[in-house]
Amino acid sequence: MEGCLEKQLRDAIRAIDYDFIEELKGPDGAIKAHEGMKNMAENSLDKDVHICSFSSWCRFPFYEVDFGWGKPIWVSCRTFPAKNFTTLIGRRWDDGMEVWVNMEAEEMAKFEQDPELLSFISIP
Predict the structure, then answer these.
(1) Which of 63, 91, 100, 110 is the most exposed place for a label (fewest CB within 10 A)?
(2) Taking a C-beta distance cutoff of 8 angstroms, is the pair 99, 117 a contact?
(3) How confident is the model at residue 80 (pLDDT cuts 50, 70, 90)?
(4) Gap between the Cα atoms of 64 and 77, Å rounded
(5) 3-state SS, residue 19
(6) For the purposes of burial, counting CB atoms within 10 Å of the CB of 87, is it exposed (0-12), middle (13-18) or buried (19 or more)?
(7) Kind and range of the H or E element at 12?
(8) How many Å apart are CA 32 and CA 25, to the nearest integer?
(9) Is 102 helix (H, G, I), strand (E, B) or coil?
(10) Taking the model in full, what pTM does it have?
């Protein structure tokens, strides 16, 4: 089914609205968050389920921070010891982003050669 994953991802992101956040702030919010993480952990034990985690740091004002020696010229994130973890980080000089991806070496080799992925990449 073409576009199925994209639709599921888009719908999941849209579900994180004001009401959802307010529910997490409520008295049962920690329980709800823990249940979601527990379900993800249980699913990750299934060999047929591949979990990919994403974190976006794109709107954090990292390039505005000045500890007394000037604003940074480049901000990066360290690699995480979790496989299939992706971090998106905004760039200083334009509205693009850097994408930091952690994968097993064999999967990364395939990922780096994907023609559709390569069509979105520009290396400055």
Answers:
(1) 110
(2) no
(3) low
(4) 16
(5) helix
(6) buried
(7) helix 4-14
(8) 10
(9) strand
(10) 0.60
